[in-house]
């Protein structure tokens, strides 16, 4: 028997295996539209996508670390460092935009490298290692800004998160953030699902010992996952910088939102299974939930409560589904 | 000894995905007897005992204990009914003391406090069944004990729980001569106390020494149930049930064995000393020895997992003291690990991905994972076919395959790397007889096509049947070499350092 | 057969070794900087007293880690407990007892829910307690946004009082640690905790109700965190919704337990190792003060030191395992 046998039932079961997160997202969007018909206007849904973009990128990056079997809790403070650091470096100098973006990406790469090396070579559990990095990186942000960030982000820097093309044919509006999201998402999707690296990452997360004995360069694969996550945090930071002010808590809480979004999308905690598309679905769903709560007039902190409950139930449901 | 059996299992059947583990098996033991349960790896002994101890439920058949129906739904229920199993993997807590382990879950208390003195005394009393000189102090952490001592603690704990039926799963596999003798004395003592002992073993000498009855399992069925201990040859015939020559492929013809491919000279590390040998192209070289003799350590050293720290290793004349498995694979030396699930497979990933993991590991990271030239997916499918892999869907998770097919997935992974030296560690552990035969055939085919094959196995008949040449290890050294056709007794004599050991 | 005893005893880095090394560094650094007044008993006591909150939290954290779980909700619970205590007390002495009871009840509920979600819903403990942290923090932030309530002067003696020249809080920490250590070493429950963490299947086979053990461990951990909240309310005079997070009690309680020799995988370690870890952290803090490191740089160094300390351990224990 080969895999060529019985193609039709398999396609059918594939269809039935469509990730339930998309269904949940559809229902939520239906609810949002019912509450606020303006949402069907380009202004409404493009704004939604623009606001969801940072979390989407962040969650897609987090999936790499989760799939490798770890956690990356340092992304929130990496976002903050990106925003605060950029404002310090730019110092209202429009011409500096490009090299500042490069410098921030470089800083993100270093943070990811440190996380990865500490986890892969020093064998510190990723939870501790990235919490340590989280403290250190936010400390660096504090030191650099002296506790009160100076300067502001130039318009060029903020364009990625803020700019919208108007009067675009067919869709009307096109936020730059959406382009960044599509581009970044495509790159991450390709890396996870279209390269050897993605398959090796799954192998390492599933069974690191077996992967090592199969000749997989386990340390390299893991370190790269942390680098991807940190770089995605920098991109998310650049987007966030576009529509929030410069402050020391821009990124606070984003690490947990990213993990929640990834888990909502069906990423397996402790490694071995993760999908970038599903994580994007998870991030959109989480943003939709927050939007809905907003429309319902619930205060900001309630979001956190809801998010906590969602996180627990998503994992509990995943456990049930796996055992069923 | 009474005539009524203490426990009885009748018509037991049990199936797992892809394999009928047991069919219509009946088995019983009386108080004060030692009932030997023998059979090859994968014959169904462990499954039968897992049913007796409440781990699995049988698909068909029933059990009685003391004449009453007995259907434990949980191991705890079987244990409190008086059934205890000493598995090869102990269930002791290595960081806790002997006394704590012996009283686990039912510590004596005085008020709210643990009564440590009572625990120590209880431990001494429980260990008293072994007489004097066992050297196990109740205050010692279990990790500081030898394997034999840990086993004694397991036995003492089972008895302290009031075990009347004690199942011992190859208890001598890791013991040296003196420790075996002490264990036999313990078993004699158990028999005298009226315990019903089920003794699982491969070694014929132990059956003659201990057993009063023998049941032989083959392919999940009882192939012989004897109320006496027959000559060893009769037991082996019942175990194998066919001509050994048919079961094992024929050896290499003289012309097929080529020059040395891998040469090891005076190599050693923390567990190995003064290792020198050659692996030759076209030849299967078996490594025998008792548990802990260094066979697996040697395989792991060659493969770069626990590398040699001294000595010289060359592969086709080139330096080959590998520091990591990756280096070894790149140079053409691959290893099939002994623990398939823990070391071999990515269980959540598909059959195809498991087969392709090594080719992908050496392709560019950004390369396409399923298109040549980086990774040859049609190639792996051809290899699966050549190995007669039975998988319904190559995109299904590899955990859905039977053990033998899982092993073939790992073999295919390595064949895709066109290796020059293949090291097989416990290649047939836990797979059924037919799958075993096909693994042996695959090994011989590989040798015939010019690879050097090394086999490490705790199953001595397997090593002897499949190898062209057998190297024997003891205490981290190579102590001798025998040609194909040597007797099990000769090999065991070398392995234990005692000429008078086990006779077949 | 896997559990072959290692043929040779290898060098092992223990909590005692690290404590001694830290002490040596501390003394040398102080002598070098010439601030010898920091070696006087009064200063040493002060230094240790500043670690009381971390110490109490870490006792609870050690207990859950020993049974191979973890609790990331302690910081949120500490904040919630401190706020609850100061709001209920509202500056009045008569409300002290009701406030303490309310806080302990809160701790028990949180611990119970954590334990149930982990054992019954089989949610990974990291996620279960992270989710719990979000729920607590969210509710807390919805209700208060700044320092709320006030504790009466008499309650503040929990922090500032002394008995026989020793600070009450330090004595209290000693009692909590001794009590926890007695539970772990002298009771059947303690023995069950080690069994569950060491090998949950073996524990189950021995008839231990493993779910109950895990739930009870989380109950104790949350109780410790809520007591920490009470202590911080006494110390600050009032509770605010960020005091737990700012104290980084989640990470630090885990870090001191690991530095003290408790293995994250469970089954090995103990309270006194954790106390050594707490003392090390207290010395690091004090050293920063002596050397005049500024607050932000302190935070940077702290993250690095935590990771380095755990790494030192991981490398040491790898040799042991390999």
From TrEMBL, chain A:
A GO term, aspect molecular function: transmembrane transporter activity
Gene Ontology CC terms, in alphabetical order: plasma membrane
Keyword hit for Transmembrane helix: yes
Record's keyword annotation contains Cell cycle: no
One Pfam family matching this protein: BPD_transp_2
Stretches that traverse the bilayer: 20-36, 98-121, 127-147, 168-192, 223-243, 275-296
Location(s) in or outside the cell: Cell membrane
Main location (coarse class): membrane
Membrane topology: Multi-pass membrane protein
Coiled-coil blocks: none
Top-rank lineage group of the source organism: Bacteria
Keywords recorded for this protein, A-Z: Cell membrane, Membrane, Transmembrane, Transmembrane helix
Protein name stated in the entry: ABC transporter permease
Protein species of origin: Rubellimicrobium roseum
Upper classification of the organism: Bacteria, Pseudomonadati, Pseudomonadota, Alphaproteobacteria, Rhodobacterales
Automatic annotation (TrEMBL), chain B:
Matches recorded under InterPro entries: AAA+_ATPase, ABC_carbohydrate_import_ATPase, ABC_transporter-like_ATP-bd, ABC_transporter-like_CS, P-loop_NTPase
Record carries keyword DNA repair: no
Pfam families: ABC_tran
Record organism: Rubellimicrobium roseum
GO MF entries: ATP binding; ATP hydrolysis activity
Domain ABC transporter: 7-244, 257-500
Taxonomy of the source species: Bacteria, Pseudomonadati, Pseudomonadota, Alphaproteobacteria, Rhodobacterales
Superkingdom of origin: Bacteria
Name of the protein: Sugar ABC transporter ATP-binding protein
Keywords: ATP-binding, Nucleotide-binding, Repeat, Sugar transport, Transport
Automatic annotation (TrEMBL), chain C:
Keywords in alphabetical order: Cell inner membrane, Cell membrane, Membrane, Transmembrane, Transmembrane helix, Transport
Membrane disposition: Multi-pass membrane protein
Molecular-function GO terms, alphabetical: transmembrane transporter activity
Pfam name, any one: BPD_transp_2
Record-annotated membrane-spanning stretches: 12-32, 44-65, 72-89, 95-118, 125-144, 164-184, 213-234, 254-284, 296-316
Primary localization class, coarse: membrane
InterPro entries: ABC_transp_permease (IPR001851)
GO CC, one annotated term: plasma membrane
Tree of life domain: Bacteria
Signal peptide: none
Subunit composition and interactions: The complex is composed of two ATP-binding proteins (LsrA), two transmembrane proteins (LsrC and LsrD) and a solute-binding protein (LsrB).
The protein's name: Autoinducer 2 import system permease protein LsrD
Organism: Rubellimicrobium roseum
């Amino acid at each position: 028997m080969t895999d060529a046998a019985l193609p039709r039932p398999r396609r059918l079961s594939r269809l039935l295996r469509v990730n339930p997160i998309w269904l949940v997202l559809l229902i939520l969007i239906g609810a949002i539209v019912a509450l606020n018909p303006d949402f069907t206007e380009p202004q409404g849904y493009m704004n939604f996508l623009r606001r969801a973009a940072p979390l989407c990128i962040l969650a897609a990056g987090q999936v790499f670390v989760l799939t490798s079997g770890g956690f990356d809790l340092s992304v929130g403070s990496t976002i903050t460092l990106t925003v605060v650091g950029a404002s310090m470096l730019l110092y209202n100098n429009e011409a500096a935009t490009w090299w500042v973006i490069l410098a921030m990406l470089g800083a993100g790469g270093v943070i990811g490298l440190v996380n990865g090396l500490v986890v892969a070579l020093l064998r510190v559990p990723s939870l501790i290692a990235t919490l340590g990095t989280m403290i250190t990186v936010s400390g660096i942000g504090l030191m650099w800004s002296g506790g009160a960030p100076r300067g502001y982000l130039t318009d060029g820097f903020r364009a990625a998160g803020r700019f919208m093309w108007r009067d675009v044919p067919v869709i009307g509006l096109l936020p730059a953030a959406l382009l960044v999201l599509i581009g970044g998402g495509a790159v991450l999707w390709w890396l996870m699902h279209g390269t050897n690296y993605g398959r090796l990452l799954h192998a390492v997360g599933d069974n690191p010992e077996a992967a090592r004995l199969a000749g997989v360069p386990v340390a390299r694969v893991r370190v790269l996952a942390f680098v991807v996550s940190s770089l995605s945090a920098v991109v998310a930071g650049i987007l966030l910088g576009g529509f929030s002010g410069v402050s020391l808590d821009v990124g606070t809480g984003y690490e947990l939102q990213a993990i929640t979004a990834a888990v909502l999308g069906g990423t397996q905690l402790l490694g071995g299974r993760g999908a970038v598309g599903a994580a994007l679905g998870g991030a959109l769903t989480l943003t939709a939930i927050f939007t809905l709560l907003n429309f319902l007039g619930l205060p900001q902190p309630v979001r956190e409560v809801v998010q906590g409950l969602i996180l627990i139930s998503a994992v509990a449901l995943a456990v049930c589904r796996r055992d069923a | 000894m009474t005539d009524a059996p203490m426990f009885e299992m009748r018509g037991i059947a049990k199936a797992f995905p892809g394999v009928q583990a047991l069919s219509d098996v009946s088995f019983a033991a009386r108080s004060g007897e030692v009932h030997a349960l023998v059979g090859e790896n994968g014959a169904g002994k462990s499954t039968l005992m897992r049913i007796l101890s409440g781990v699995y439920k049988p698909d068909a058949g029933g059990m009685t204990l003391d004449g009453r129906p007995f259907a434990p739904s949980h191991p705890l229920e079987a244990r409190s009914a008086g059934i205890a199993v000493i598995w090869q993997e102990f269930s002791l807590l290595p960081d806790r003391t002997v006394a704590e382990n012996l009283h686990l879950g039912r510590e004596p208390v005085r008020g709210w406090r643990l009564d440590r003195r009572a625990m120590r005394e209880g431990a001494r009393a429980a260990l008293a069944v072994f007489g004097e000189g066992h050297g196990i102090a109740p205050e010692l952490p279990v990790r500081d004990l030898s394997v034999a001592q840990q086993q004694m603690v397991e036995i003492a704990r089972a008895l302290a729980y009031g075990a009347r039926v004690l199942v011992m799963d190859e208890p001598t596999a890791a013991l040296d001569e003196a420790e075996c003798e002490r264990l036999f004395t313990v078993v004699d003592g158990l028999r005298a106390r009226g315990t019903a002992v089920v003794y699982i073993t491969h070694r014929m000498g132990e059956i003659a020494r201990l057993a009063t009855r023998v049941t032989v399992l083959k392919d999940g069925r009882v192939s012989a149930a004897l109320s006496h201990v027959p000559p060893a040859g009769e037991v082996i015939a019942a175990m194998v049930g066919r001509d050994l020559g048919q079961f094992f492929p024929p050896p290499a013809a003289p012309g097929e064995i080529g020059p040395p491919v891998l040469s090891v000279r005076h190599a050693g590390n923390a567990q190995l000393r003064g290792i020198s040998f050659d692996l030759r192209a076209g030849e299967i070289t078996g490594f025998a020895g008792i548990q802990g003799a260094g066979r697996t350590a040697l395989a792991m050293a060659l493969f770069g997992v626990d590398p040699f720290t001294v000595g010289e290793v060359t592969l086709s004349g080139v330096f080959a003291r590998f520091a990591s498995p990756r280096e070894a694979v790149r140079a053409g030396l691959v290893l099939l690990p002994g623990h398939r699930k823990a070391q071999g497979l990515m269980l959540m990933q598909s059959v195809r991905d498991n087969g392709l993991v090594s080719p992908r590991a050496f392709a560019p990271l950004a390369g396409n994972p399923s298109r040549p030239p980086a990774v040859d997916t049609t190639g792996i499918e051809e290899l699966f076919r050549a190995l007669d892999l039975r998988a319904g869907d190559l995109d299904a998770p590899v955990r859905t395959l039977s053990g033998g097919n899982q092993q073939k997935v790992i073999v295919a992974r390595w064949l895709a790397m066109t290796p020059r030296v293949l090291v097989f560690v416990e290649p047939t552990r836990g797979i059924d007889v037919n799958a075993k035969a096909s693994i042996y055939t695959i090994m011989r085919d590989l040798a015939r096509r010019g690879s050097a094959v090394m086999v490490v196995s705790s199953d001595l008949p397997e090593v002897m049947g499949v190898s062209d040449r057998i190297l024997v290890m003891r205490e981290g050294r190579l102590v001798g070499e025998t040609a194909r056709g040597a007797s099990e007794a000769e090999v065991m004599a070398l392995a234990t350092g005692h000429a008078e050991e086990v006779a077949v | 057969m896997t559990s072959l005893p290692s043929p040779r005893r290898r060098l092992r880095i223990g909590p005692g070794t690290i404590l001694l090394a830290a002490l040596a560094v501390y003394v040398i650094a102080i002598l070098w900087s010439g601030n010898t007044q920091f070696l006087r008993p009064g200063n040493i006591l002060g230094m240790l007293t500043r670690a009381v909150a971390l110490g109490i939290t870490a006792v609870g954290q050690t207990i859950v880690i020993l049974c191979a779980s973890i609790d990331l909700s302690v910081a949120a619970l500490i904040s919630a407990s401190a706020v609850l205590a100061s709001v209920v007390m509202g500056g009045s002495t008569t409300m002290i007892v009701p406030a303490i009871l309310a806080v302990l009840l809160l701790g028990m509920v949180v611990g119970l829910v954590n334990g149930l979600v982990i054992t019954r819903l089989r949610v990974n403990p990291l996620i279960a307690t992270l989710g719990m942290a979000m729920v607590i923090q969210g509710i807390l932030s919805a209700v208060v946004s700044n320092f709320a309530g006030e504790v009466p002067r008499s309650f503040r003696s929990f922090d500032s009082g002394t008995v026989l020249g020793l600070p009450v809080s330090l004595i209290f920490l000693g009692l909590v640690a001794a009590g926890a250590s007695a539970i772990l070493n002298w009771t059947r429950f303690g023995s069950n905790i080690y069994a569950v963490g060491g090998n949950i299947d073996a524990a189950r086979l021995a008839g231990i109700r493993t779910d109950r053990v895990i739930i009870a461990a989380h109950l104790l951990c949350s109780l410790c965190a809520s007591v920490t909240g009470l202590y911080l309310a006494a110390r600050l005079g009032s509770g605010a919704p960020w005091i737990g997070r700012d104290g980084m009690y989640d990470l630090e309680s885990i870090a001191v337990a690991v530095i003290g020799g408790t293995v994250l995988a469970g089954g090995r370690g103990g309270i006194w190792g954790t106390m050594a870890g707490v003392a090390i952290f207290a010395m690091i803090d004090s050293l920063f003060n002596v050397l005049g490191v500024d607050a932000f740089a302190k935070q940077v160094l702290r993250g690095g030191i935590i990771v380095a300390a755990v790494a030192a351990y991981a490398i040491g224990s790898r040799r042991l395992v390999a």
